[in-house]
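Record now logged underneath.
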Amino acid sequence: MARKRKRKSRRRLEGRKILELVPHYYIESGEDKPVTAARKHIRANGITPPALLVVKRNEHTTDRYFWAEKGLFGAQYVEENHFLFPSLRVIKPQVKVTTPSLSTSH
């Protein structure tokens, strides 16, 4: 029997598209916990918000964090609640607008 697919949240998909437009930084956590590695990288490089940090924990696992004016957040939370972040309100994904073609034949 076929399994029913989980419905994808439109709000989260929109948030994911917005986060794709933000600068990304890829780092390795090393000996630190992923969130600590992200904080150290932000401090050391003077990264200004908004930014997305992808921290590689080991060869299989990566954690994603969003650096905002308010602090460091999990990227999944930001995808779902992107409207709460003022720095993301200005960023809008390019939406393909399809205009219906009008036929002028009489």
